[in-house]
């Protein structure tokens, strides 16, 4: 298992390099312009100079190699220096700078992480916690009232887009009832009970929207996987042996059913970091999703490149984690 | 606090406050909550150029003089506006001398001196800095500090309109001590300074989260001890225009939201909640349809849409251009897409009032389908079996492009319908704004390349002086492969008469003469049907009913007088 993990990790390096090149090339080919949003009153000569200041006048490969150096050497060194307080070299290294804000991309990401993890991460956690029991009961009591209602709600949650549920909830709970704020305050710091309550209030609506979506998706998987296993021979054997129904369900069936579900959940974790673009935008949570979408709209290529690449790293990593989890959950699977 | 107690408290407060001045004390009105759905990326306007950055930074850093709600230049950091009469502008028009208010202080307590003004010029003109406001310093030879409160700007040639450098929120003064190590290529590296410039304005930056939220607090060293009324400002970014409007007009969570590009009927429903109003500031923005006077035929290859490719097969006939203009009903376009945020216009220069021509309003502002049809009939454009007019094998069938935007697409559909009534068919196309306005010479879809017959967008001019704007329709400003497709003369207009008048404008000093020339140039463009001006666009913003003292301006930052804003008691 250990050697397998090491082998996979080593193999990931060339994969990621290729991915980074493909992203860079695609972004470069896209007919987007970082100056496209500037007022037309800025004359062409000045635009040319702004472009040059961004380094856009250099050839494609030079820019790519520069980004590689900034991302893989300068940024890690910088983090290392900050963590240890040691200084390597003169400390005057070019960092990956965003074009729109002219500030280091990594700082922007660090600033956005908390609200994304709080809102999108919690919604994913709640979604998973809710989905497993709903899926299990739905499958065990197939075609019961619970299953019918559960299936209906999960189908609705799965098929109605978040930009619709989000706006409907704002109109009901913010405009009409005025129970919850429609705008998320990223400046709010939890210091005491009242600010904690305020934080709960502002997280409620976005988390509700995302939990419904996540839970619906995972619950469908759990239900299908449980149904597959419930009709297996080993279940009949267990019951024939006189194993208690609770143990049959939760020990035998659930453990086997979780194998595909774990993959789905593990592969879904990187999407937490990519944020929930639409939901963040609607509630102005301004996390990583909003950062990515504004960067795409403003053609802020260094920011888009770095963010997308970090997502690529996470996806590769969580693929590996899912594979390793397989081995742990299912003793039949051995990689060595 | 429930509603009754709040009302009671309000009444008591109103009674006790009655008779006292509206904003008696600095910082007495608490927090002002502002919503910009286009989030602010930086506080250094010299590195951005965006309108959102301009407005946010104008609360902190100030120019020597600004534009008020009517477009007049008024002194901010200067004692008075230099003119020929008061001797501030030299007789030969090559220098302008600014006197700075004595005793001015930066928000960090240090003294504001003429050196800071000189430094600002050096900062923006340094090599490799990519200063977005460099055009403001065009023609400036030197900027010198005569003494700590006097600055002399010398131009390379006589400058009839010298209120460019250090005038308006696009050209504010930054502190030398803070930015001295940030010249040229080092400019983007000074993140702390770019996010929190030290200024002279009513507020200072407390915390800046790029593309998210900015917290401002009162500048204790602001020159007027009674202002501003608000103790702090929170400027939140993100989301979309409609939900921003809702946050002010319906839920009342915010006091002010900028740029409400929302369908008029949606806004009308929100306004019914009675929590706020929409104020529209008109500047110089005009939505127009440009007519391509050159041939955009793809068969021409490199010569496509250039003078070398020859004139447009249909638009070389002025009757066709005029008929297109006559067939348009501007009122319907305004009503459907702009509401109170737009007015019908036939001018490319819609303001300030002194520059506005009324010469063509009589015939141009109203739709006349019959006259347009007659014009085309007389010119020999006959309707074919498909109802489309043609002459000598040239069909009046055009490609009409614009940027992707729901109002623009609605306008396109309306115009298509109007033109169908005179036997002209158009194919509609919309291109993502970042591509259309991006100006990438490799892309075939930019508004500069104009690989279409007609294109629609909005443009305006900076400040209140239209001189550089009028120069955009000069012959040599036409984009072509030779200029890397740069240039502002999109219709490829070329008229020696126009060039002569535009050159004359750049040498004319007297305001009345300048205004007469601008009107003449404007009328020339309308009467030659170089473009079809459609809508004079304003900038609508939503304000809570409790905010008073707002004077919307389309000529400078919308928050130019935020020091005077206060909350109704």
UniProtKB/TrEMBL annotation, chain A:
Residues 113-322 form the ABC transmembrane type-1 domain. The chain crosses the membrane at residues 9-27, 117-140, 152-179, 199-216, 258-283, 303-329. It comes from the Bacteria. Its main location: membrane. InterPro entries: BPD_transp_1_N, MetI-like, MetI-like_sf. PANTHER family: INNER MEMBRANE ABC TRANSPORTER (PTHR30465), OPPB IN A BINDING PROTEIN-DEPENDENT TRANSPORT SYSTEM (PTHR30465:SF97). This is ABC transporter permease. It comes from Rhizobium oryzicola.
UniProtKB/TrEMBL annotation, chain B:
Residues 1-24 form the signal peptide. The keyword Hydrolase does not apply. Coiled coil: none annotated. Residues 74-474 form the Solute-binding protein family domain. Residues 299-310 have a biased composition (Basic and acidic residues). InterPro entries: Peptide/Ni-bd, SBP_5, SBP_5_dom. Residues 293-314 are annotated as: Disordered. The keyword Signal applies. It is found in: Periplasm. Pfam families: SBP_bac_5. Keywords: Signal. Its main location: periplasm. PANTHER family: MONOACYL PHOSPHATIDYLINOSITOL TETRAMANNOSIDE-BINDING PROTEIN LPQW-RELATED, PERIPLASMIC BINDING COMPONENT OF ABC TRANSPORTER. Belongs to the bacterial solute-binding protein 5 family. This is Peptide ABC transporter substrate-binding protein. It comes from Rhizobium oryzicola.
């Amino acid at each position: 298992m250990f050697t397998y993990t090491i082998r996979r990790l080593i193999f990931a390096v060339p994969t990621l390099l290729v991915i980074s090149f493909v992203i860079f090339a695609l972004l470069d080919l896209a007919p987007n312009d970082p100056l496209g949003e500037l007022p037309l009153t800025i004359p062409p000569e000045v635009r040319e100079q702004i472009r040059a200041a961004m380094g856009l006048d250099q050839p494609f490969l030079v820019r790519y190699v520069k980004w590689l150096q900034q991302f893989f050497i300068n940024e890690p060194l910088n983090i290392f220096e900050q963590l240890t307080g040691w200084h390597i070299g003169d400390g005057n290294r070019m960092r990956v700078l965003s074009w729109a804000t002219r500030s280091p991309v990594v700082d922007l990401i660090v600033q956005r992480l908390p609200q994304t993890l709080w809102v999108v991460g919690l919604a994913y956690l709640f979604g998973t916690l809710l989905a497993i029991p709903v899926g299990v009961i739905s499958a065990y009591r197939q075609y019961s009232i619970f299953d019918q209602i559960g299936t209906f709600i999960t189908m609705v949650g799965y098929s109605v887009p978040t930009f619709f549920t989000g706006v409907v909830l704002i109109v009901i709970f913010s405009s009409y009832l005025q129970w919850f704020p429609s705008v998320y305050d990223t400046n709010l710091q939890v210091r005491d009970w009242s600010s904690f309550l305020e934080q709960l209030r502002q997280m409620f609506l976005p988390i509700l929207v995302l939990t419904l979506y996540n839970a619906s998706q995972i619950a469908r998987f759990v239900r299908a996987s449980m149904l597959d296993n419930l009709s297996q021979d080993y279940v009949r054997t267990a019951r024939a042996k006189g194993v208690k129904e609770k143990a049959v369900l939760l020990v035998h069936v659930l453990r086997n059913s979780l194998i595909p579900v774990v993959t789905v959940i593990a592969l879904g974790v990187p999407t937490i970091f990519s944020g929930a673009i639409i939901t963040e935008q609607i509630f102005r949570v301004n996390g990583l999703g909003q950062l990515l979408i504004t960067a795409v709209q403003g053609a802020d290529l260094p920011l888009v490149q770095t963010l997308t690449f970090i997502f690529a790293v996470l996806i590769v990593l969580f693929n590996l984690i899912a594979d390793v989890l397989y081995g742990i959950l299912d003793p039949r699977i051995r990689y060595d | 606090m429930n509603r009754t107690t709040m009302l009671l408290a309000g009444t008591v407060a109103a009674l006790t406050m009655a008779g006292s001045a509206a904003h008696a004390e600095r910082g007495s009105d608490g927090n002002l909550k502002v919503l910009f759905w286009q989030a602010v990326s930086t506080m250094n306007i010299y590195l951005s150029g965006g309108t959102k950055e301009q407005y946010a930074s104008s609360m902190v850093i100030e120019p020597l003089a600004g534009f008020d709600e009517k477009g007049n230049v008024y002194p901010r950091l200067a004692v008075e506006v230099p003119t020929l009469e008061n001797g501030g502008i030299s007789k030969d028009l090559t220098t302008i001398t600014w006197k700075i208010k004595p005793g001015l202080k930066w928000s960090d307590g240090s003294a504001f001196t003429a050196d800071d003004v000189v430094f600002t010029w050096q900062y923006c003109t340094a090599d490799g800095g990519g200063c977005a406001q460099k055009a403001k310093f065009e023609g400036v030879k030197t900027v010198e500090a005569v003494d700590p409160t006097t600055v002399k700007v010398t131009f390379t040639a006589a400058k009839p309109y010298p209120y460019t450098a250090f005038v308006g929120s696009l050209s504010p003064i930054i502190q030398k001590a803070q930015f001295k190590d940030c010249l040229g290529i080092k400019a983007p590296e000074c993140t702390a300074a770019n996010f929190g410039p030290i200024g002279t304005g009513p507020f200072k930056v407390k915390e800046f989260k790029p593309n998210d939220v900015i917290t401002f607090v009162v500048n204790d060293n602001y020159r007027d001890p009674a202002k501003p009324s608000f103790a702090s400002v929170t400027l939140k970014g993100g989301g979309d225009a409609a939900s921003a409007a809702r946050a002010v007009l319906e839920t009342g969570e915010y006091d002010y939201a900028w740029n409400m590009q929302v369908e008029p009927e949606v806004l009308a429903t929100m306004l019914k909640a009675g929590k706020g109003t929409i104020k529209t500031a008109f500047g110089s923005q005009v939505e127009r349809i440009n007519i391509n006077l050159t041939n955009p035929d793809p068969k021409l290859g490199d010569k496509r849409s250039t003078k070398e490719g020859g004139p447009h097969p249909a638009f070389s006939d002025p009757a066709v251009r005029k008929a297109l203009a006559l067939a348009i009903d501007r009122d319907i376009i305004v009503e459907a897409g702009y509401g109170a945020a737009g007015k019908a216009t036939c001018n490319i220069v819609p303001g300030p009032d002194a520059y506005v021509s009324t010469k063509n309003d009589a015939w141009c502002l109203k739709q006349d389908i019959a006259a347009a049809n007659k014009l085309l009939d007389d010119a020999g454009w006959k309707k074919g079996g498909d109802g489309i007019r043609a002459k000598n094998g040239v069909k009046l069938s055009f490609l009409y492009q614009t940027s992707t935007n729901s109002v623009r697409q609605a306008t396109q559909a309306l115009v298509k319908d109007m033109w169908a009534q005179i036997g002209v068919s158009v194919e509609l196309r919309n291109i993502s704004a970042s591509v259309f306005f991006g100006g990438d010479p490799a892309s075939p879809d930019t508004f500069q390349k104009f690989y279409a017959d007609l294109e629609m967008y909005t443009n305006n001019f900076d400040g209140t002086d239209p001189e550089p704007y009028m120069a955009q329709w000069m012959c040599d400003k036409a984009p072509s492969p030779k200029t890397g497709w740069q240039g502002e003369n999109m219709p490829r207009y070329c008229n020696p008469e126009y060039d002569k008048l535009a050159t004359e404008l750049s040498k004319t000093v007297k305001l009345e003469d300048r205004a007469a020339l601008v009107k003449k140039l404007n009328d020339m463009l309308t009467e030659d049907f170089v473009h079809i001006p459609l809508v004079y666009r304003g900038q609508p913003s939503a304000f809570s009913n409790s905010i008073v003292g707002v004077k919307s301006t389309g000529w400078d930052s919308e928050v130019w007088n935020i020091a005077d804003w206060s909350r109704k008691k």
